[in-house]
Amino acid sequence: MSLTMSPVKPSSGARKPTRREQAAATRERMIVGAIEVFTEAGYTGARMADIADRAGVAVQTLYFTFHTKPELLSACYEHAVLGPDRLPPNLQPFWTKSLKARSGRAALAAFAEGNTEIISRAAAIDDVAKAAVHEPEVAEIRDHSEALRRSGYRELIAHVAERFGLRRGLDVDRATDLALTLAGPQTYLSLRASGWTDQEFQKWLSDSLSTQLLARPGQSSGS
Fold first, then answer.
1. Closest to 126 in 3D by CA, of 63, 47, 188
2. pLDDT tens digits along 188-203
């Protein structure tokens, strides 16, 4: 008996993707391909032709969409931070959960959860940019990303400070400095290189932020 199967014909009722959806999918492939090539070859060593090849598009298509390599790097950062739902951090579910938490520990636990998801996507591309800060355009992109990260962290920590209180002698700016270090991509990559899982990093980050920032770190983590 033959095991050869006839090709399955697509259902006549299946909806074809729109041009906009096709363009979005192609853009996604190009960004994913760029992240892979940047990570493997470094920013300087990554060629637009190699990125186009990885994404399965013509190099002209890549240039038409992103124009320059710095613009493509910036898109990689945005892709990592916004995530699959294309939402800025302050519109993502973890942010609302943090603001609604009924203890400082729960607020920071929610932040640690969301931040770990973002950092797990952004750390590799940030490492690429960090190694190429001798390139003025790359330095500008990374500085902009760090400024946005500081602004977001500070907003959340200001909320925690007002509602639950910070450790004695600690103000919002110094607390933000600590959070930037503890929750940052370099700390994440260092621990991952030592074999830590994302779950282990998230728990450590939640505990560390509570211990380092809160006036009452032992307060219940219940939301």
1. 188
2. 999 999 999 999 999 9
